[in-house]
Amino acid sequence: MLIALECKTSLGMKALFDLIASRPRPVALFGGMCTEVNEPVAMALKYWQVVQLSYAETHAKFGTADSQE
């Protein structure tokens, strides 16, 4: 499933919850380029053990695997 969204956190979280509720549940999610959407989505995904990959995220918070959040 491919969903293109504007850089709005509310739309990103709604799409995430719809995706998590679907079957089969994803093992990875390709994120976008907006930090304001990627950050809350990544924080929520850890509770479902889903990996988020982002092709354009440049924020330092996502630069290391050991970032604490």
Description:
With 69 residues, the protein is an alpha+beta fold. The protein has one domain (9-62). Helices cover 35% and strands 12% of the residues. It is built from two helices and two strands, in the order H-E-H-E. The chain has helices spanning 9-21, 35-45, and strands spanning 28-31, 51-54. A two-stranded parallel ribbon has the order 1-2. Strand 1 (28-31), helix 2 (35-45) and strand 2 form a beta-alpha-beta unit. Helix 1 runs parallel beside helix 2. The termini are far apart. The mean pLDDT is 79. GO terms for molecular function: G protein-coupled GABA receptor activity. InterPro entries: GPCR3_GABA-B (IPR002455), Peripla_BP_I (IPR028082). Keywords: G-protein coupled receptor, Glycoprotein, Receptor, Transducer.
Protein traits:
single chain; 69 residues; alpha+beta; glycoprotein
Helices, strands, pairings?
Elements: H1 9-21, E1 28-31, H2 35-45, E2 51-54
Parallel strand pairs: 1-2
Helix pairs in contact: 1-2
Task: Provide a compact summary of the structure.
The chain has 69 residues and is an alpha+beta fold. It contains two helices and two strands. α1 packs parallel to α2.
Rg over C-alpha atoms, rounded to the nearest angstrom = 12 Å
- Based on CA inertia axes, which overall geometry fits? globular
Extract low-pLDDT stretches: none
The helix/strand series, from N terminus to C terminus, equals: HEHE
Q: What is the total tally of β strands?
A: 2
Number of helical regions: 2
Beta strand %: 5-15%
Largest sheet: 2 strands, parallel
Structural class: alpha+beta
Count structural domains.
1
Going across the major beta sheet, what is the strand order? Answer: 1-2
The averaged pLDDT comes out at: 79
Terminal Cα span: 28 Å
Proportion of residues in helical segments: 25-40%
